[in-house]
Amino acid sequence: MGCAHTPVSLTFSEAFGLRYRVEDTQLNPNLRYLRVVIDGHSALMVLGYVEPSPKGSIETWYSNSGEVLQLSNGRLWSTSGLRVDWRAVQHLSQPPSWNDVVSHQTQSVGQHLRWRYQRQLDKMPGYRFGQKQVVTLRPVPVQNDAALLGIKPDELHWFEEALDDRFHLKPSARYGLLNTDGKPRVVYGEQCLESSSCLSWQEWPIRKSGP
Fold first, then answer.
1. pTM: predicted TM-score of the whole model, two decimal places
2. What is the CATH number of domain 7-18+33-204?
3. Are 81 and 66 in contact (CB under 8 A)?
4. FRET pair for 154, CA 20 to 30 Å: which of 134, 138, 143, 202?
5. Is there a contact between 57 and 51 (Cβ–Cβ < 8 Å)?
6. How far apart are CA 91 and CA 108, in angstroms?
7. 118 with 133: CB under 8 angstroms?
8. Tens digits of per-residue pLDDT, 108-167?
9. Domain limits, the chain
């Protein structure tokens, strides 16, 4: 049986290319890591700090070459030092919780599920301030072509986000969630900052049980 591909999965496959050897790196057990692929180049990032927020904690991750990545509830929140950076992300309407979408996905197999929210962000370079986006989230089949290591794609719940682009949806991101002790969390994500610049991030190594 062939793999199911969505337009966003084909875009990411072309961007990321071959698998990388981050798995050979010796890790410090006292630190938390992300395995990140940016425009085809892989690296490890280390968690610097977690900032509490009413809408979900914001994690700040650092690479040894100066890139910074912030995540909130598994979604990209801000970047610094990349070829294209996102800044000042705001959710104008709140995204659905991952608990809710995974619960609906499990209970409503075969139904046409979609959720929508709005966000605003600044994009650099070019000083593109206040860009507003309408985002549609939906479940998708197992993403066998994801740049994923250490866990099988069919062990995760998969979702895709697409931007409303007037007359059609333009794929933008996808997420793999692991249900740990009854609570789903994003362990793998991909985001196109713009059509020519994409990145992926993955909890490294993936914890299959709670802390």
1. 0.83
2. 2.40.360
3. yes
4. 134
5. yes
6. 27
7. yes
8. 655 678 999 999 999 998 888 999 999 999 999 999 999 888 899 999 999 999 988 765
9. 7-18+33-204
Q: Which residues contact 196 (CB under 8 A, 6 or more apart)?
A: 84
- Tokens representing residue 105 in the block: 């996905």
Structure tokens at 150: 């250490």
Q: What DSSP character marks residue 23?
A: G
Distances, alpha carbon 173 to alpha carbons 1, 56, 99, in Å: 25, 19, 18
Q: Report residue 121 as tokens.
A: 């962000």
Distance CA 168, CA 187 (A): 28
Buried b (16+ CB within 10 A) or exposed e, 167-195: eebebbbbbbbbeeeeebbbbbbbbbbee
Rounded Cα distance between 210 and 6, Å, is 31
